[in-house]
Amino acid sequence: MTTDLLLEGRHFRRDWSSGYEIGRKAAAQNLSDIVAMGATPTGLFVGLGMPADTPIAWLDELTDGFRDECGLVGTSVAGGDIASSPMIVLGVTALGDLGGIAPITRSGARPGDQVAVAGRLGYAAAGLALLSGGVAVDSFEELLRAHRRPEPPYAEGPRAAALGATAMMDVSDGLVQDLGHIAKASGTGIVLEPDSFHVPALLGAAAAYLGVDPLDWILTGGEDHALAAVFPPEVRLPPEWRIVGEVVPGQNVQVKGRAEAPGGWDHFRG
């Protein structure tokens, strides 16, 4: 079981995203938490707060978004509740079935294990940076869409469990920060190899347009909901998983060549 809270103005903006996109995003970030434990999603429950004048058409779009995202993993919204609110508030709870296996938690990493990632990194962060800067260039539409509607690699969660993953979580607050949770829970350190991260041409072009380092988006950007997992060194990984580092004795996450590892999203930072 997992739960997430989405607040209008904090986690989404209706002038940036349609009701359909918000529904898909709200479903995706919860479904990705379920598969990150090696489970198969079985249902969502949605608590919705909204102003009384919320357009019915927007609610229909929201409902369609939930339906279509859940359809990707063969599940649906099973229930929920509504209430009046001065802004849109979504509280989503997802359930999953482990099929009798133990859940993959954050605490199983051991020195010598390999750290790998499945799914996109940096795309949603780039889209947010473009939207925040008022940039709506057609050539960057894929990045804008990535912020509005993530595409988690759902199939790779249960697959990682079958391969023998010892720790796993979805990347919602930034790769370095989320791997830090694994390092802390496991009592280990993690070293990332920056050369292992391929910078797609689109991401590089957006970074050049805004004058930033695209690797910062890859290392610290959240909301792509990629999966980060730790595997024993003898496990041969399929091409969907990219080895990006290693578990080592010690603590915290370090990026080779950087004196201090970059941070990620902090819910209570100003």
Task: Give the key terms.
single chain; 270 residues; alpha+beta; 60s Ribosomal Protein L30, Chain: A; 2 domains; four-stranded mixed beta sheet; thiamine biosynthesis; ATP-binding
CATH topology of the largest domain: Phosphoribosyl-aminoimidazole Synthetase, Chain A, domain 2
Total DSSP helices? 8
* Estimated structural class: alpha+beta
> Tell me about the biggest sheet?
6 strands, mixed
SSE pattern, N- to C-terminal: EHEHEEEHHHEHEHHEEE
Average pLDDT, rounded to a whole number, is 94
Which outline best applies? Answer: globular
Q: Total strand count, please?
A: 10
CATH superfamily of the largest domain: PurM-like C-terminal domain
Uncertain stretches of 5 or more adjacent residues: none
Share of helix, binned:
25-40%
Q: Structurally, how many domains make up the residues? A: 2
CATH domain class of the largest domain: Alpha Beta
